[in-house]
Amino acid sequence: MRTFLIGSMLFVLSSLAAAQSQSQSQAQLNLMPMPASVQPGSGQLAITQSFSVSVTGVRGASLGSAVERFQDQLSRQTGIPFRPKAGGSPALEIHADRGLDAVQKLGEDESYELTVTDSGAKLTAPTSLGAMHGLETFLQLVQITPTGFAVPAVTIKDQPRFPWRGLMFDVSRHFIPIDVLKRNLDGMAAVKMNVMHWHLSDDQGFRAESRVFPKLTGMGSAGQYYTQDEIRDIIAYAHDRGIRVIPEFDIPGHSTAWFVGYPELASAPGPYKLERRGGVFDATMDPTREETYKFLEKFIAEMTRLFPDAYFHIGGDEVNGKQWDSNPKIQAFMHSHGMKNNQDLQAYFNQRVQKIVARNHKIMVGWDEVLHPDLPKTIIVQSWRGQESLATAAKQGYSGLLSYGYYLDLMWPAARHYAIEPMSDAAATLSPEEKNRILGGESCQWAEWVTPENIDSHIWPRNAVIAERLWSPQSVTDVTSMYTRMSAVSLDLEWLGLTHRSARMHMLHRMAGTADISALRVFADVVEPVKDYGRGDDESTPDFDAPLTHMIDAVYPESDTARQFAGLVQTYLQSGAKDQASETQIRAWLALWRDNDAKLHPLLDQSFLLQEDAPLSQELSALGAAGLQALDFFDKSQPAPGAWKTQQLALIEQAKKPAAGLLLMVAAPIQQLIEAGGQPAKTGP
Amino acid sequence: MRTFLIGSMLFVLSSLAAAQSQSQSQAQLNLMPMPASVQPGSGQLAITQSFSVSVTGVRGASLGSAVERFQDQLSRQTGIPFRPKAGGSPALEIHADRGLDAVQKLGEDESYELTVTDSGAKLTAPTSLGAMHGLETFLQLVQITPTGFAVPAVTIKDQPRFPWRGLMFDVSRHFIPIDVLKRNLDGMAAVKMNVMHWHLSDDQGFRAESRVFPKLTGMGSAGQYYTQDEIRDIIAYAHDRGIRVIPEFDIPGHSTAWFVGYPELASAPGPYKLERRGGVFDATMDPTREETYKFLEKFIAEMTRLFPDAYFHIGGDEVNGKQWDSNPKIQAFMHSHGMKNNQDLQAYFNQRVQKIVARNHKIMVGWDEVLHPDLPKTIIVQSWRGQESLATAAKQGYSGLLSYGYYLDLMWPAARHYAIEPMSDAAATLSPEEKNRILGGESCQWAEWVTPENIDSHIWPRNAVIAERLWSPQSVTDVTSMYTRMSAVSLDLEWLGLTHRSARMHMLHRMAGTADISALRVFADVVEPVKDYGRGDDESTPDFDAPLTHMIDAVYPESDTARQFAGLVQTYLQSGAKDQASETQIRAWLALWRDNDAKLHPLLDQSFLLQEDAPLSQELSALGAAGLQALDFFDKSQPAPGAWKTQQLALIEQAKKPAAGLLLMVAAPIQQLIEAGGQPAKTGP
Q: Catalytic one among B318, B494, B612, B675?
């Protein structure tokens, strides 16, 4: 038995070692989205100055420029100006059977296989679309090692879980210039997203040039719109990166911008002017006048020629019906047509619009509200309401997309988006055929609170985890791994020109007016913007013309520092307050925060943009001090006195209230320290 | 006497107060270059969303685009999207009498007057060139205040001290792309420099397209060159910003790149290939063959048409004469023409070239070595040798430019460049007429060790202090004020798109391969690259195709942290080790450094780019510990034991040696602490 035991123990140990080594090698592969299958090999392929690429099979223009972009990005990531040796054998061989179609289709084969050994890499794919995805995987595999840049030996077989993986840009609330869209398209390609949904009109601005109806932008855009040439440029740019472009013109609600130039389209008399704040407004198209459809007929014909993709989004969300309710002609129309309510009227409108869209050989997409049994099953429903809504649609035969849970403007932590599973809840109970109708999803960047300066930080890196949810197998759910990989991919994204990390530094300098912003950074590192719609959209909030230059506009949606600190506190308390290494680190953080307000305060006073942060900065210092006192009780193995606890918890309550739109994210873990106060493990009630 | 004393003391105190208040108001005006005359007013002009500009007088295109650029930059600096009120009165009125000439001339009136009150600002100038300078001053005046962005009330009358204030770009050693040149032209305009000297050919590459001699770039550029269209684009871009563009084609030395395609021009038989390292090479044009001049005749005719400026730079530096010495035909030529040495032969060459340049209606510029009595007094000598050389030329009737002391590639601290006064030493003794011949100067960005990624940090912000030296009155020399203002202007420059501060962060991330680079930043903050030509240019150094991605390539040429720390140590020791506030800060720094290696070490081991920094990181920790021990002796008022001192000073000697091309800049102030070791004031021998 002794022998057996030793044998078992050796087995256990070697299993542990294998598991550890595998987990290390997994940790080393900072891939996001995680591929369908990853088999680690041994050794690594060195990335040297003579690195070169060869392409066989298809040599379409798209793959050609993809290889060029790949080499540029590899050069930025590594700093190596590549000089392939004449006659040298290529380090990466690419083979794709087919090139990109002139217009990319939903459901194309996006699979690829990538094999890396210490002597070279091979990337094969049925389509150049798949090959492009493989190139992005290769870029993410590149890592710095003690001997140089290298890609670890690995065999990857990959394909997406869902065929529709999109990001919606609202460009109405705040206009987003072409160059900003382009760098975000680069980011989307890097995480294998394949749909750009372009929300081009809303109450605050009409952003796409119409030559048939020039007053749409002429009067409805305040001069901020895309010309048709610019739109074609974006479509070509996206197509080069394997990304389809779906335009959305939101009707019949969210349509104030149409009515500034064409008030006759509305359900109540004008004049109209652009809205300058967020919210749901009354302005709604009149579905009862034939002139409305004549207008839309011409407009949709023009736009469907401009946008080559097979899908055309008509919005359809959030019609409050007030203009319909108060218009006697519309009421009479509804009565004479036997319509029971506004939903029926909107369904009538949608049917009419759907026929126009279909006559122009496009498939209509709309938000949840368009779902109505009178519409053909070909349409697609985009759900902001949730999996329940999606499942209902699928059961009725409609295809759907999930956007619920993927609203980037709600300032959720990455883990919360990551946990949103399209096939969960009601969707999990669908039949296989019904499940197939769930095509994927889209993250949404609603633009109430973004400018070209800070939009990247609202999208990235969190959008990468939504991309993973839509690409990777459903089983890929480990949150710790996700954060590690997201952090690595975030760095790569900055090499593409995205400014999601660097913009904050510039904005902090602006607020401070000085070069030394170290204390301000300590503060900015532990706060997050308020969540959901906490920022409000009533008359008391600044309008969309106002600068977005406060701390709430500069900080990252999620605080890495707070998350890591919470992890340390967790480890420490779980160790029964015995883990010295954790305690040392916790103390260092707490002392930094305790001492920060004294350094920061003079700066805050001098700046109109920072004064509002003074109370929170003081509270951070108080929290630091309280946390240190809590640790002292642990060190002395004394339970903290009740009066002290009560006092500190009052402080915590205060510190948890948002101030200047900010949340102090270290309040909760410090609360844990205080509540445990000197008593490492709970000992009954 | 008592009354008198009190009176005196009051006077002294009020003088102090006045001086302090003036110094405060001066400190608030973060202007660089400092204007000729600044009269502070009272109050401030608020910069709000309705801020607008009006232009009267000239409405030339150049001023028009200057106003647009001004508004863009103001918007970036403040984050305000300006929305001028219809019918509102402009906050800034600009009047210029004359527009820019199609080709800008040396010595144009660049003066302007800017008056700011709490109700508005007026900018007047004889030329739109002056008005552009005034706009840059206005941008530098914008500051954040407790009530908003504002410009303090002030009256500024300004004009440059020297008419020629240039920056030379070497684009041969490392090619610098168009977009990088453009953002640096923006930076030059911001600090009122008015000459871009474009060093377009050297042993390592020929960078300007010649249609007459296509092999110059076809064989001599490795594909890295500017087309004539791109050159015209840069000239127009510079002209828009009041910057003249002077091309330099360096002959007869530094000319290997010519000979790759045209070996017959050389003084020794080919074939030639591009040099890939720095240094002075043998390849030299043959000044004895008429074919050489026929070639140059055609080439210069083409280039002088391409570059509209009146000046044309022929280089002329560092001819080592080896090819001439060893070519019998050249020796025979020299003998038959009665030439005593190679200097005579080069003078003959220069005369011939000068005549070609003059026939093309241009004035020749050359480096020191071209100075020879046989050349006409119209030429301009650019001195890399110093004020002595400049004075000699001026006495002989030649105009001159100073570049000695302004070589940005030598990695000097800003203060050292700042101290280089063109009119000092021999130049100070010149007659007024001779002094007038000193036209100004140029900073030089030799490109042995720069890439598009790090070039901005080699130029900025230090170039701003050279710009000040050439623009501001000779009396403007206060180094403390200079550093304060340079730091502020440096932030503004990043809003223009320069990456002199932000690039380091990306490069540190690349080296580390991780998101958390805090310990690496602590290290990078206290090191500087070796100075002068310490990096070497022999076969053991990497060639110019190699990546520049090590710590030496990423760090700033001057460590702000080290300079500030040295100041703290100075204050502390001068206080007789009594200044507790300084000691607290010094201790915080020393503890940070002492503890840094433990955090940094694991990272260094993982990266081939960082391993070389391990010894220096250890030394930094040792220095931190040693400094803290020295402070302990002060605190105990004990003289440090001799053995301890000896040991620590040995450590200092070691730490002062460059490692991985880096200097540990805090070694010297820590040495001061150790040497003073426990004995605050020296008490005799």
A: B318
